[in-house]
Amino acid sequence: MRLFLHELKAEQRLYWRSREAAFFTFLFPILLYVLVSAFYTGEIEGRPAGRVLLAGLLGYGAATTTFAGIAIFLVVRRENGILKRLRATPLPPVVYISALLASTLLVFAAEAVAMVLLARFAYHVGIPDRLGSLALALLLGAAAFTALGIALTAAIRSAEGASAVVNLIVLPMAFLSGSFGPTRHYPHVLRALAEALPLTYLIRLVRGAVVFGEPIWERPTAVAVVAVWGLIGLALSLWAFRWEPTETG
How far is Cα 115 from Cα 103, in angstroms, rounded to an integer? Predict the structure, then answer.
């Protein structure tokens, strides 16, 4: 436990010292909430716009902070030889990975709280009645996207290409899943594609708690889909994750 806490503190220091990481994975979803709220006022599909947008941006924050953040961090450290050197130290690999994951989840938890408070005080969006269900939904989504982010590292072969690959996945997924507004006017083929994406179901879970005041168990299909995606990510991570750099040149 002492090693874990020491490594967790080190990961937190590294994260907050990286201005780029702190901006794009922590502040950017919050800023997007402010920007998108300027376009949508009144109601969206009969519900207060602020609540609907809060649910979508919380889902987007989970994907950005956990999926994108963990994938970029691990690829950069792998290609710089940091992960390989870590395996030669007395620090057990499981402690290092656990501390990195815990640090990522702490960052996302702080981001989610900040976004809910921003919605409350800047846009008069009440604190969700189902805070427990909201926390469970976000935890499930963060865990699933973290596993998928680790799995994705096997497909990224260079540190320079990490951000490009991640954004190529996250941004289209966010638009298709409804992170930035309603998708009812999208072409049928895009809406059908969205039905296969984990972020679509995470946003439904979050929207259920934030917009409709529903407990998480009212949407068992969404819970199952997000969980299955997480298990797929976990299986791929255990099979394909590498500690050694992939670039030889």
Answer: 18
| 9 in any annotated domain | yes
**Assigned domain for 249 exists:** no
Yes or no: say if 177 and 200 are a contact pair by the CB < 8 Å rule: yes
DSSP label at 117?
Answer: H
How far, in whole angstroms, is CA 80 from its chain's centroid?
A: 24
Contact (Cβ atoms closer than 8 angstroms) between residue 104 and residue 203: no
Least confident of 45-49, 200-204, 225-229: 45-49
In degrees to the nearest 10, what's the CA dihedral of 188, 191, 192, 196?
170
Q: How far apart are CA 65 and CA 103, in angstroms?
A: 11
Which one, of 68, 72, 108, lies nearest residue 206 by Cα? 108
Side chain identity at residue 11, one-letter code: E
What are residue 47's DSSP bridge partners?
44
Where are any strands of DSSP class E within the chain?
A: 43-44, 47-48
Number of folded domains that form the chain? 1
- Asked whether residue 144 is domain-assigned, the answer is yes
In this structure, the number of other CB atoms found within 10 A of the CB of residue 217 comes to: 10
Domain coverage including residue 217: 2-240
pLDDT exceeds cutoff 60 at 87: yes
Would the pTM count as exceeding 0.85?
yes
Q: Is residue 245 part of a domain?
A: no
